[in-house]
Amino acid sequence: MTKKVLVTHRLPGERIHDLAHCSDVNVWMGPGLLPAAGLREELAGCHGLVCMLTDRIDRALIDAMPDLEFVSSMSVGVDHVDVSALTERGIPLGNTPGVLVDTTADAAFAMLLAAARRLGEADRFVRQGNWSPENAWSPDFFTGKDVTGATLGIIGLGEIGQAVARRAAGFDMRVLAWNRTPREVPGVESVSLEELLLRSDFVSIHVALTDDTHNLLDAEKIAMMKPGAVLVNTARGGIVDEAALAAALSGGHLYAAGIDVFEREPVSLDNPLLEHSSVVVAPHIGSATVLTRARMADIASENALAALKDQPMPHCVNPEVYG
Ligand code: GLV
After folding, report:
1. 241-282 pLDDT, tens per residue?
2. Which residues pair with 71 in a beta bridge?
3. C-alpha span between 263 and 258 (Å, rounded)
4. Pocket of ligand 1 (CB under 6 A)
5. Atom of ligand 1 minimally distant from the CA of 75
6. Which of 15, 117, 284, 293 is an active site residue?
7. Domains of the chain with bracketed CATH
8. How far apart are the first and last CA of the chain?
9. Lowest CB count within 10 Å: 2, 185, 247, 282, which one?
10. Catalytic residue status for 56
């Protein structure tokens, strides 16, 4: 029997074409994202799903799909999927680790530099025609915060956190890190989360969003941050209490922030973080380079191809399903 696979977006890369050779593939062609009701409709009767981080794969959806045999997500994070519900059914879930490490670390460092040196504000200033002889170079014109020689605190010292630490070394930064299970990494001082927040001029988040890390940086933790610090989040929005962060910026406790991920995406225009000119924002583009997205799509396709051949996925989040 030819198995049916739903792919919720047109994918770059080469390997997606191989999927069509061994299954009956239905690709959602848009426009835009496949809405939840459409996902439920299109997935009915499918054996496999290749999804994006924008698709919500919750227990109700999984329970409604008796034929589902595998899910492959084109993302490293899987907080959009109810992993336990899949595991209980013996359904493997694939993800795409590794290939996006450097690209995401580059994005985090870009946001750190942009927030420190006020690049978002400066860009708007020029485009809006505010740069004039009366409002131009002066000793304190667009002065920001030094990155070179400052202290960086990395929350989550996995592959991306370590790649950020390597970039920081090039800026002569002192690097502190907190990881739930402490890790020895040369050039990185392992500290408690509290010490990291107290000592760091810049804090960059690189943990996955789980029940344990939801609101990890709440009002109390944000209040512990060094006065004048900068927070960078390229991990997941739910890890930071956005209202508390906005309040800390308004009150002058924090200097700036670089935020690529939001609790609710696309972000609503009344999100308090958007009111702050010192917050550099981006629409969840940490892994967004042409090459990295093609590599991620290839891995997502390879995970699906393995499942179609009844083989273990090369990158499986719940390998216990293979017994
Ligand atoms: C991006 O955020 C990913 O999880 O791949």
Report:
1. 999 999 999 999 999 999 999 999 999 999 999 999 999 999
2. 49, 93
3. 14
4. 53, 75-77, 100, 286-287
5. 5
6. 284
7. 4-99+290-322 (3.40.50.720), 101-281 (3.40.50.720)
8. 25
9. 2
10. no
